[in-house]
Design a protein that fits this description.
The protein is mostly beta strands and 382 residues long. The protein is built from two helices and 34 strands. Pfam families: DUF5122 (PF17164).
Amino acid sequence: MTFRGKLAGLIASVAATAALLSPGSPALAAIVKATPDPLPTFNGTVLATAYAGDTLYVGGDFTSVTAGGRTVTRNRLAAVNARTGALLGWAPAADSTVRAIAVSGRAVFVGGAFTSISGTGRDGLARLDAGNGAVHNSFKQSLTGMPYSLAVGNGRLYAGGTMTSLNGQAIHRLAAFDPNTGAPIAGWRPRADDTVESVVVSGRRIYVGGQFGSIGGGSGTRHLAALTTSGAVDTGFTSRASEVVHAVAVGASGIYAAMGGPGGRLGAFTTSGAGRWTLTMDGDAQAVAVLDKVVYIGGHYDNVCKSARTGDKGSCTDGNTRRIKLAAANEAGGALLPWAADGNGSSGVHTMAASNSLHKVVAGGAFTTIRGASRARLAQFG
């Protein structure tokens, strides 16, 4: 190459770097800060998070929350003002684990292992008032097994988990309900052959991920599938998920699946299921959220691998970039971003959610620090 050619290349490289680092750059404007907002801390694992306007609803295994120097009782359910970080008075009390939360208007739907909320019997699924936390009178079912994930869309509440019977009738880990009355949607009976861990509604499609090998015995439904509002498998989507899918998110460019496996994976797919890109970690990816064309990934990994190859116990074979429990990637091409909101602990991050209106991302789990500072089990980035 001539000197002139080398000089032109150098100038182009410098210009590209300057554009990336510019304060007005879309790449930097889109990503949230790695230092978390001040929030209450929790004495047990956070397993579910959901935004509704300025309110962040939280569920899990905790029994108390500390805010403003005071520790108060919160039995597995709590709410936080996502703008100010203040703990709200919303305090329905579940008698066992809450694993899933979905919000629609003034209805807060919760699912998990509980048998009662605030002394009112509910078999693992309940509708609560978003204002006072009251248990809805008529929204009541009899379930064998429990919901792991809830989603609202198309005038329905969708649930996925380990459920094998509903009001005495056999089901196969998936169900849909009238969100006002709790009545099961007749005929919506997809048949997953193992646990469903994630349910997400996008338009008329319902994406589901989990441990299942197939839904309805259909091909192309291993670990990840798309369903129609009738409950049939949407054959326009073919799964390329290589491992168990713990969480699913939908972004502007496609579908994102947080997966386990040798090490762990974050798989990016088109709306037909074709693979777009993959990030490999040295531990499971367990949660995922998308905000402003950035994909945020939570799990129990300590490193993002520089190739897809993993060795003993999922270790990175070809080198790694340190990212502890949390990482971020460009949605378009999967490039790892320099966002290092490092957590701690062994099991790490279990849930993530994003708020477009607040431009915030929240992570919940078993961690107790973020970037070395105390942030027990809940961290919000904005």
